[in-house]
Specification:
Blueprint lengths: L2 H17 L2 H20 L7 E7 L4 H12 L3 E6 L2 H9 L5 E5 L3 H7 L6 E4 L4 H26 L21 H32 L1 H6 L5 H30 L8 H25 L3 H19 L11 H6 L4 H15 L3 H25 L6
Parallel strand pairs: 1-2, 1-3
Antiparallel strand pairs: 3-4
Helix pairs in contact: 1-9, 2-7, 2-9, 3-6, 7-9, 7-10, 7-11, 7-13, 9-10, 10-11, 10-13, 10-14, 13-14
Length: about 375
């Protein structure tokens, strides 16, 4: 390997990047668009829940409880005259849940000290149904405590939970999703950058000109890898800045750890792209293979949206060959918890093994031949 030849190949790639803005779009525009779409469009928080309220016998006590629901930021309550009309609203999608206070609500509250509330929830979305149930239970307990304090009595509770939420005390799903989204974006742009540019050279016939030169295959691969590695790190810097300054995600770890593990993961993603470019010499085929083999597994099997521990055992084993699994864990730990070295080192080792594997496969499979 000669430095002059390698620098010449890198210079050629820089000129190609400047001539063809599609690579710049993949490295910078694509992360910007995906972060804006997912950051503002994807949320696991349930807000503005349409709550149909039915009160058989309105009293001061029922009005007090409904006022507590009205003050909650989670609910958007609407009064219905009877249970039948509320059920029709639930069937037609105008309501997400029905809260029914029966005619004996006030009497039972004063006589026995407790009265049941009837909650009917649309269970099509099981996750949202559980969230609505928890929100109503929390509002109910809060109202009971306030009502007991107003009457000067003590609310008898067998167990009082003293809850502490670590790492994400605001319970914002955005703080959890945005770091994982950076890993998904880096997977996509890393694989697309190298897969498409090499396939484009095969389509345009410029790869034949490189083949007849005295450069070695290691120099060719490094000449492709280094410029797009720099672009990918630029895209990661932009994504991190958007996460911190636009979406207000806390960054409790060090930037050195963040970008060190990010560089390792980007090399892994670029290595996957090089493997795809060796096998696919068409830009369309390379793009489809990159999306199917890198983006979709990273999106589904990395723990970004779906908890890996809730997956079947066989799928849990398969997740170990998905590089994004390790980087998602590192990102969420670095952003929300800080530099937890057992987590960083364990997952960094997994990324290093996959990085060496994909770069080794690309080096072994690449041939300076046209067949």
């Amino acid at each position: 390997m000669k430095v002059m030849r390698l620098s010449g190949l890198m210079r050629k790639e820089v000129y190609e990047i400047l001539r063809d803005p599609s690579s710049i779009a993949i490295a910078f525009v694509l992360p910007l668009v995906l972060l804006l779409i997912f950051g503002y469009g994807v949320s696991l928080d349930a807000r503005h829940i349409s709550m149909a309220e039915v009160v058989d016998h309105p009293t001061q006590l029922t009005a007090s409880f409904l006022a507590e629901l009205q003050r909650s930021p989670w609910f958007r309550p609407s009064i219905y005259p009877d249970q039948a009309s509320a059920e029709q609203a639930l069937l037609h999608g105008r309501a997400d849940a029905i809260l029914w206070l029966r005619s004996d609500f006030t009497r039972l509250s004063y006589s026995s000290g407790s009265a049941p509330i009837h909650l009917t929830v649309n269970g099509v979305d099981a996750n949202q149904a559980r969230i609505i149930e928890n929100y109503v239970n929390g509002t109910w307990r809060l109202w009971l405590q306030q009502e007991a304090a107003r009457q000067g009595t003590h609310l008898a509770t067998p167990v009082v939970a003293d809850t502490r939420v670590w790492f994400n005390p605001a319970l914002r799903s955005r703080d959890y999703l945005i770091p994982g989204l950076i890993a998904i974006i880096m997977t996509l742009i890393g694989a697309l950058l190298t897969a498409l540019v090499v396939a484009r050279e095969w389509e345009r016939g410029t790869m034949e000109g490189i083949m007849v030169t005295p450069v070695g295959k290691t120099e060719i691969l490094l000449g492709k890898l280094v410029p797009y590695f720099v672009m990918g790190m630029g895209g990661m810097m932009m994504s991190t800045a958007m996460a911190v300054f636009l979406f207000d995600v806390p960054l409790r770890g060090s930037l050195l750890v963040l970008f060190g593990t990010g560089a390792l993961f980007l090399l892994t993603a670029l290595g996957m792209g090089l493997v795809i470019s060796v096998l696919a010499r068409s830009q369309f085929v390379a793009a489809m293979v990159a999306i199917v083999t890198t983006f979709l597994p990273a999106f589904i099997l990395s723990g970004f949206l779906f908890d890996i521990r809730s997956m079947p055992q066989v799928i849990q084993v398969l997740t170990h060959i998905v590089a994004a699994r390790y980087f998602v864990t590192v990102l969420q730990s670095t952003f929300l918890a800080g530099d937890i070295w057992p987590v960083i080192l364990r997952n960094g080792l997994g990324m290093a093994i996959l990085c060496m594997f994909f770069l080794g496969i690309a080096l072994l499979r690449f041939r300076k031949r046209l067949d």
